[in-house]
Amino acid sequence: MTKSTSSYIIKGEKHDWEVVCGLEVHCQIKSESKLFSNAPANFGSAPNSNVEFLDAGMPGMLPVINEECVRQAVRTALSLNAQVNNVSEFSRKNYFYADLSLGYQISQADKPIMGPGVVVLDMPDGTTRNIGLERMHMEIDAGKSMHDQHPDSSFIDFNRAGVGLMEIVSDPDIRTPEEAGAFLRKLRAIVRYVGSCDGNMDEGSMRCDANVSVRPVGSTELRTRCEIKNVNSVRYVMQAIEIEALRHVELYEAGRGDEIIQSSRLFDPNKGETRSMRSKENAHDYRYFPEPDLLPLVVSDELIAELKAKLPELPDAKKERFIQEFKLSPYDSAVLIDDRNTAEYYEIVAKIADPKLSANWITTNLFALLKEENKTIANSPISASNLGKLIKLITDDVISGKIAKQVFEIMATDDKDPEKIVEEKGLKQITDTSAIEKIIDELIESSPENVQAFKEGKTKVVGWFVGQVMKQTQGKANPGVVNKILKDKLS
Amino acid sequence: MGVDTKTLDRICELSRIEIKEENKQDVISKLDNVIHWMDSLNEVDTSKVEPLVNVSSLFGSAPWREDKATGGNKVEQVLKNAPSQMEEHFLVPKVVE
Fold first, then answer.
1. Which of A1, A41, A151, A419 is deepest in the core (most CB within 10 A)?
2. Residues 285..324 of A with a Cβ closer than 8 Å to B: which?
3. Could A296 and B13 be called an inter-chain contact, meaning their C-beta atoms sit closer than 8 Å?
4. Does B72 touch chain A (CB under 8 A)?
5. Closest by alpha carbon to A106, among A271, A258, A286, A237?
6. What is the pLDDT of residue B94?
7. Shortest Cα distance from B58 to chain A (angstroms)?
């Protein structure tokens, strides 16, 4: 079995197969208190200290919805180009597990807060692709179990129980692991722009389930899908989809398609496999029914309009503006808008220096530096205004690109005005023609054989002369000026 | 909709109950009767009636609460009824995936 990299087709003996994938993404809603109780919703408190009686499943407690969570859900829906339902309803999803003390999850079933929407993916080749969204509903998070604290018992902490979640469900429009990755990155960018979720997959504030099936290329059927639960990084989601799709293809090709049953699976990144979750193998039925303790949630058109008017500039709009205003390629623009802080940093740099060159410096040199020092752009060792000044020194012919990299290294440890660094270290480019002319005259004098070679048509020898000049000036000679003088003197 | 053996087996599994093989036909016909009796509800034309989720919704919509974290910090009370506890956690039989 091989897979083609361009369109992601898995080639089998009998068929060529394509992947059909839909994602369910749980986003923890950013709010001070929980969805239905006034216990704090923050992460990292002492065990069971962020718990109200409701969250612990005590009898007789009533849920009251948090208005900020509703607003966050509406903001998110609006930023996903989706319809906000004026009336939505809560249901009980019943299941029995130690981290869910109520015995049910308050969720939304038939009438969720958000209807169909769309996420636009920016692909590496600069094209875009639309992935449909089926819905988004609000629900409560469960508590946390710890299995490594005691030999034969598990510890349960209900601090997370009751924290608001938005579950965003995509259509089965995703065809490649790359698209799944792009979808998650875009969704994360959107919720971060809007401020409705941290989007930190490693901390669990954003979690993803992937529904995967395969079908012969050209067919439109939807075959049995398996759900890979709770994958906690973009990279793992991509790997899990790839591995699960290959598993399906192998089984179909071997005539064992009936072994693929609709079930929940876990992805094990160490072993590079997915395996069935035993607890979910047994039949269960969530017995959804309307939550009798909650009246329908009504969101007025006035509130929707008010929240819409206050939305920040969203990733897609920003991407388009960067293309127009700064003449960036769609791909560069997509990379820069991915993170709101990067976009803001870029705008400061691009207002000081050449926009295109600024984009290059940020996506190559600055990103490499941040990666090396394990920092984010928000705490970049080099400020945006100083980077802008540095790039401007290049286009103003004060220093060469090569020298600029040296200055950049210095700035990485000492974020000073680059002009001062250039001044102090004497790195200013020599544009004084007489000084350069003098060096060239000496070279012509001392190496007549190279001059002769040039005259015989070996023009490559110019490179040797340039190299010599750069050596003698420690790279400070302006390459344009050097070339011009050489051309005049040699011919 | 009728009840067959397969449906009965699934209901048994979900409800964690067991029905002896020789009693299954009897239970099926009884369940079938109940379901067919329910079918009579379909005789009423409800196409123009909005579904009612909660009787109280006739009186309005859910009240909203201001987002203030004024609760929590009652570990002792929360854990008071726990059958088993340790280090401010509930202690439950181990279930590992």
1. A41
2. 285, 290, 292, 294-298
3. no
4. yes
5. A286
6. 87
7. 9
The ipTM (two decimal places) reads: 0.83
Nearest CA to A229 among A201, A205, A210? A210
Residues A33, B68 contacting (CB under 8 angstroms)? yes
Q: Please answer yes or no on whether B93 and A153 come within 8 Å at the CB atom.
A: yes
Q: Nearest 5°: phi and psi at A251?
A: -65, -45
B70 vs B14: CA distance, rounded Å: 40
pLDDT digits (tens, 9 = 90+) for A266-303: 999 999 999 988 665 565 788 899 999 999 999 999 99
Question: What would the two tokens of residue A355 be?
Answer: 């926009």
Tell me the fold of A433-490: Arc Repressor Mutant, subunit A (1.10.10)
A163 vs B contacts (CB less than 8 Å): none
- Among residues A41, A39, A40, A37, the alpha carbon closest in space to that of A61 is found at A37
HSE-up of A6 (CA within 13 Å, CB side)?
0
Q: For residue A410, count CB atoms less than 10 angstroms from its CB and return exposed for 0-12, middle for 13-18, buried for 19 or more.
A: middle
The answer to whether residue B69 neighbours chain A at the CB level (below 8 Å) is yes
For A38-94, the pLDDT digits (tens) are: 999 999 999 999 999 999 999 999 999 999 999 999 999 999 999 999 999 999 999
Distance CA A332, CA A326 (A): 11
Chain-centroid distance, C-alpha A232: 13
| Ordered alpha helix ranges (H), A24-115 | 67-79
User: Which helix (H) or strand (E) is A145 found in, with range?
Assistant: strand A144-146
**Inter-chain residue contact B65 with A153, CB threshold 8 Å:** no
Amino acid at A374: N
Instruction: Note whether A203 and A209 are within 8 A (CB).
Output: no
pLDDT in tens, B9-36: 988 988 889 999 999 999 999 999 999 9
Number of cross-chain residue pairs from A and B with Cβ atoms under 8 Å apart: 148
3-state class (DSSP) for residue A128: strand
**Alpha carbon distances (Å) from A55 to A33, A65, A67, A153, B83:** 12, 13, 18, 21, 17
Residues of chain A where predicted confidence (pLDDT) is lower than 50:
1-5
Average pLDDT, chain B: 89
d(CA A176, CA A10): 10
Domain locations in chain A as residue ranges: 2-306, 313-425, 433-490
